[in-house]
């Protein structure tokens, strides 16, 4: 059995509502002979008599009433599908939702967004700044179109792409004893010293923990746990203690970088989006801008 065309189903529903093939044809912008032919084709395909044609008009047969009722539900579902698709298309055209962890949000994403806005002046863009774990979760749930993370760990349910390489640096205030060391710190000295750190879920915290574990020294010992990179930086400047922060944050003269012997705090910054989804529109443009930039924004000296 061949499925009837959608326009034929619309005709059938309208005949039931209007009691006239001619009026139904006029609503759909076609002629009465064309509408009659289309309805006859539906009856042949279904093997049912759907319309009782009389001099006073046309009415649905009992079978026609059943088929018209089901046709109405099909057309309603199709209308909902088309409305939903249009809403999604309009959302992608008019807006872009982005989430980023602290380091890319403070130093990299604003540059990419600025370039994107120059070519898309009417674009509405929202940026949510949180830690890497939360960015990954927002992307996984489809609450943002694109995320940027600094987490070194696996990202199940997400597609990821390298956009930059960052380097972490141990920093202390000028009055700290490490500021006057004539030699690099040993990994053991770093591991045994309480540090000002980000909260669990932060990519910076995860990177430092992983490096120390790989050296057989266990996770970092928190002196203070703070919720942003700027809070960690300001606490170090205020003399609260040492920390490990992005090299992008070490421009302040109140911070003294300290070398660590045999330790590589390099990490990859990645764009993330739901696995299996193809980026399009502004999200794809933003990703292209990110990967086109220098992949090593903070090279080692």
UniProtKB/TrEMBL annotation:
<dbReference type="GO" id="GO:0000976">
    <property type="term" value="F:transcription cis-regulatory region binding"/>
</dbReference>
<dbReference type="InterPro" id="IPR036390">
    <property type="entry name" value="WH_DNA-bd_sf"/>
</dbReference>
<comment type="similarity">
    <text>Belongs to the LysR transcriptional regulatory family.</text>
</comment>
<dbReference type="InterPro" id="IPR036388">
    <property type="entry name" value="WH-like_DNA-bd_sf"/>
</dbReference>
<dbReference type="GO" id="GO:0003700">
    <property type="term" value="F:DNA-binding transcription factor activity"/>
</dbReference>
<dbReference type="InterPro" id="IPR000847">
    <property type="entry name" value="LysR_HTH_N"/>
</dbReference>
<dbReference type="Pfam" id="PF03466">
    <property type="entry name" value="LysR_substrate"/>
</dbReference>
<dbReference type="InterPro" id="IPR005119">
    <property type="entry name" value="LysR_subst-bd"/>
</dbReference>
<keyword id="KW-0804">Transcription</keyword>
<keyword id="KW-0805">Transcription regulation</keyword>
<protein>
    <submittedName>
        <fullName>LysR family transcriptional regulator</fullName>
    </submittedName>
</protein>
<keyword id="KW-0238">DNA-binding</keyword>
<dbReference type="Pfam" id="PF00126">
    <property type="entry name" value="HTH_1"/>
</dbReference>
<feature type="domain" description="HTH lysR-type">
    <location>
        <begin position="4"/>
        <end position="61"/>
    </location>
</feature>
């Amino acid at each position: 059995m061949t499925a009837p065309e959608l326009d034929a189903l619309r005709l059938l529903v309208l005949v039931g509502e209007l009691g006239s093939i001619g009026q139904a044809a006029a609503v759909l912008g076609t002629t009465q002979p064309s509408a009659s032919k289309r309805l006859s084709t539906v009856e042949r395909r279904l093997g049912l008599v759907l319309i009782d044609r009389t001099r006073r008009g046309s009415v649905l047969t009992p079978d026609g009433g059943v088929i018209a009722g089901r046709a109405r539900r099909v057309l309603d579902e199709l209308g909902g599908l088309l409305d939903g698709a249009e809403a999604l298309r309009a959302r992608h055209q008019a807006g872009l939702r982005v989430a980023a962890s602290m380091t890319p949000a403070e130093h990299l994403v604003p540059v990419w967004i600025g370039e994107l806005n120059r070519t898309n002046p009417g674009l509405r863009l929202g940026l949510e700044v949180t830690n890497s774990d939360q960015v990954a979760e927002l992307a996984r749930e489809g609450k943002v179109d694109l995320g940027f993370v600094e987490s070194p760990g696996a990202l199940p349910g997400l597609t990821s792409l390298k956009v930059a390489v960052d380097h972490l640096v141990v920093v202390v205030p000028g009055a700290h004893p490490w500021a006057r060391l004539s030699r690099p710190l040993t990994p053991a000295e770093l591991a045994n010293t309480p540090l000002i750190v980000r909260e669990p879920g932060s990519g910076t915290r995860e990177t430092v923990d992983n490096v120390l574990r790989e050296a057989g020294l266990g996770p970092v010992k928190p002196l203070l746990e703070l919720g942003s990179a700027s809070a960690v930086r300001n606490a170090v400047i205020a003399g609260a203690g040492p920390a490990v922060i992005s090299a992008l944050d070490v421009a302040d003269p109140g911070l003294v970088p300290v070398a660590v012997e045999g330790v590589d705090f390099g990490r990859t910054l990645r764009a993330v989006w739901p696995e299996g989804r193809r980026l399009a529109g502004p999200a794809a443009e933003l990703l292209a801008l990110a990967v086109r930039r220098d992949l090593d924004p903070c090279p080692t000296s």
